[in-house]
Amino acid sequence: MSYPEPRYLGDKGEVNALFRSADQEPELSRPGGNHTHYLATQASTGGEFGLYKIDMGARAPGPSTHFHKGISESFFILSGHVDLYDGDRWRKAGAGDFLYVPVGGLHAFKNDSDEPASMLMLFSPGAPREEYFEQVAEMAQKGGEEFGAFLVRHDSFFV
To answer: Which residues, 6 or more positions from 72, have their beta carbon under 8 angstroms from its beta carbon?
Structure first.
C-alpha cells in the first residue's frame, strides 16, 4: 500500500491548521447532560472526515441498531462506560476502548450506566452530520415519510 497522491503541490507549506480549545462550549446541548462538540466537520476538513466529542449523561439512550451505506463510523471511549453494539453483541466499553464499524456494518450505542460517559465519534469520509445531530429528535417525533426521508438523506438505515 502506498501513500495517496499529493494534493498539496506547493514547496513551502501553509499556515492553515485549525485549533479548538478544550474549554469551548459544545455546539449542541440536550437535557440530561448530553452534549455534542463539533471538533472537525466535513466543512472544516474538506470532506476527509468528521470528528465529534459526545458527552452522554447517565442512562442516556443512543440510536438503535443501524448502518451506513457511504460512511464508516468509529468510537473511542474517553471516560465512563458506553455500551457499543458491534453487529454481533453488546460490549461494555471503557476509557481507551475503540470500535471501528466499516461501511454497511450494523452498530448501536448507549450509556446504560449510572455515570456520565464521553467518547469520540469519527465518520469517514466526512459527512454533514451536524444537521442530523441537531434535528433527529424533532424529526423522530414527526415520524412518517418525512422522518424516513430525513434518515435516508443522512445515510442512516435502521433495522
So the answer is: 100, 101, 102, 103, 105, 123, 124
Whether residue 140 lies inside any domain: the answer is no
CA dihedral of residues 95, 92, 152, 103 (deg, nearest 10)? 70
Alpha carbons 37 and 40: distance in angstroms, whole number:
9
Q: What confidence tens digit (pLDDT) does each residue in 16-53 have? A: 999 999 999 999 999 889 999 999 999 999 999 999 99
Whether residue 134 is contained in a domain is answered as no
* Cα–Cα distance measured from residue 111 to residue 102, given in angstroms and rounded to the nearest whole number: 22
For the entire predicted model, the pTM comes to 0.94
- 138 part of a folded domain: no
CATH of the domain at 73: 2.60.120.10
Q: Looking up cell 442512516, which residue turns up?
A: 156
User: DSSP string covering 97-114, please?
Assistant: -EEEE-TT--BEEE--SS
Domain range enclosing 114:
28-128
Q: State the cell numbers at 80.
A: 465512563
Count of all residues that appear for the chain in the document: 159
Q: Is residue 61 part of a domain?
A: yes
Domain count of the fold of the chain: 1
State how far the Cα of 152 lies from the Cα of 158, in Å rounded to an integer.
10
